[in-house]
Amino acid sequence: MVRTYVLLVWTWTRAAAQYPLSFTLMTLGGMVLGGLDVAVIWVIFTNTTTLGGFGLSEVMFLYGAACLSFATADLLFGNVDRISQHIRAGTFDTMLIRPVSPFVQMATDRFVPYRAGRVVQGAVILAIALSHLDVPGDRVWMIPVMVLSGIVIFTAVWVLGSAVQFLLTDAPDLTNSLTSGGATLTQYPLSVYSADLVRGVTFVLPLAFVNWQPGLYVLGREDPSGLPYWLRFLSPAAAAAMALVAALAWRTGIRHYRSTGS
Amino acid sequence: MGRCSTFALYLRLVWYGFRKHAAYRAAAVAGAFTNTVFGVLRAYVLIALWTARPGLGGYDLTDAVTFSFLSQAYIGPMQVFGGGLDIPQRIRSGDIALDLVRPASLQLWNLSEDLGRAACLFLIRSVVPVVAGALLFGILLPDDVVTWAAFLTSFVLGVVVSFGWRYLVAVATCWVIDDRGLSVMSMILTTFFSGLMVPLVIFPGGLGTLARALPWAAMVQVPTDVYLGKTSLVDALAFQVSWAVVLLGAGAAVTAAARRKVVIQGG
Transmembrane region positions (chain B) (predicted)? Predict the structure, then answer.
């Protein structure tokens, strides 16, 4: 499965490399576009020293971690949200009869390597933020755990949103509100949001485990919403649970898929 | 063609643009939902900022929350993320040659359809986020007819300026063929300098002055200021009208150049 994935990714990458100018422009464009979010945080911090009780370096740390996880998930699996296009065009039928998992085919469909630009950007912001923060050596181990869990959670959100498209073929934008909405939500300290929203993204759709709960551990901060301390170690568990739910939803979607017949 | 029937033609195109987009209701409703989600998220960030800095940029907390939801309401009608015109596609396929020989202006033709599109998306995509914002947070609702009339005028002018800009970007495809790089650049400029991401009133110093003078401000910042009563109405409308004239004028010039280019290529 991994071999097929790598093979298909390589095929699409070579296809994209046929247009080097467009490829370069898109990579740069993606980075500048991501840079806009940083610019917005910068504009906000020209007006204040703290946002929701967090300073610029701390907000950049949370932003960088979320951006790195989101961009990696987007690069590797983000194209599954194109499924409604394939359902409507009837091309999903073709994928079902090929001897490769339809999930691998969807994830690599028109794989766009220039999204790697945003991965780099997230990593750079995270590194710069960390260099401004004094993270004690015995807390550093949480950073890779956090990023990996974040990648799994965002991938699961994408797959969930895409599985919903089996039902709502005409409204792919709904997936967008889940994925991009999740990315936007996690860019800021969750302390800016209302208590209900924070509980919702902790216990229902566990976006708080992408960067917020583990981030509080890395930063050595109290949870402003007063949730229990041990939650900050639960990111891997939340990621595993989300992955399970998403896999079940995807399977259910495929089992109940009916071709448009076109 | 008489002047009267010309007007009827463009009016009919407005209607066609409206109907074309009314056909994609499900997508537009999903868009309205997305805009609402983002309105809520932005509102919380702005609330955090305005709680730390009350009165920042001359806005109070309610103004800032109102700004979040109004700015999301513009995304559909003003196509803040770009696109909305099928010119780039038609340039790549060569169909544009057909459009250029029609006995009607390419620019006015597209403007008419775009106004119809904007009217349709206003109904489906703009009302929901604003109502949701009013119910969830409470937003400012002007209580006099004059402000509403002024806002409506400013809103329509915002759509025209947005069209003027998007038309230029679209016709530029004639020269670059692959329009994706241009669309990304246009999206960056528009989302940042219109005030969609954060109100331009909190941009620092020179950057703020520059942003408020650029055409993109006519799309999100100016109509919202008219709605909130934060600006002199005459200044606001004059700003929008001037940019509309400049952009449409540039569009007409570029169209003429494109026509010559197409002829040189042999259509």
Answer: 22-45, 118-140, 146-169, 181-202, 237-258
Please provide the size of chain B in residues: 267
pTM: 0.91
Residues of chain B in Cβ contact (below 8 Å) with chain A: 24, 26-27, 29-31, 33-34, 37-38, 40-41, 44-45, 47-49, 52-53, 56, 178, 180-181, 184-185, 187-188, 191-192, 197-198, 202-204
Q: Is the C-alpha dihedral spanning B66, B68, B69, B75 positive or negative?
A: positive
- Write down the ipTM of this complex: 0.90
In 3D space, the residue among A257, A261, A245, A227 whose CA is nearest the CA of residue A96 turns out to be A257
Summarize pLDDT for B39-54 with one digit per residue, the tens.
999 999 999 999 999 9
Look at residue A209 and give its three-state secondary structure: helix
Contact A43 B181 (CB under 8 A): no
Alpha carbon distance A132, B57 (integer Å): 29
What is the per-residue DSSP string for chain B?
A: --HHHHHHHHHHHHHHHHHHHHTTHHHHHHHHHHHHHHHHHHHHHHHHHHHHSTTGGG--HHHHHHHHHHHHHHHHHHTTTS----HHHHHHHTTHHHHHHSSS-HHHHHHHHHHHHHHHHIIIIIHHHHHHHHHHT------SHHHHHHHHHHHHHHHHHHHHHHHHHHHTHHHHS--HHHHHHHHHHHHHHTTSSS-GGGS-HHHHHHHHHSGGGGTTHHHHHHHHT-S-HHHHHHHHHHHHHHHHHHHHHHHHHHHHHHHHHT-
The pLDDT tens digits of the residues spanning B74-129 come to 999 999 998 889 898 888 888 888 888 888 899 999 999 999 999 999 999 999 99
Weakest-pLDDT range from A92-106, A209-223, B92-106, B253-267: B253-267
- In sequence order, the β-bridge partners of residue A54 are A51
A62 in B contact zone (CB under 8 Å): no
Question: Six-digit token pair at A93?
Answer: 């039928």
How many folded domains does chain B comprise? 1
Average pLDDT, chain B: 92
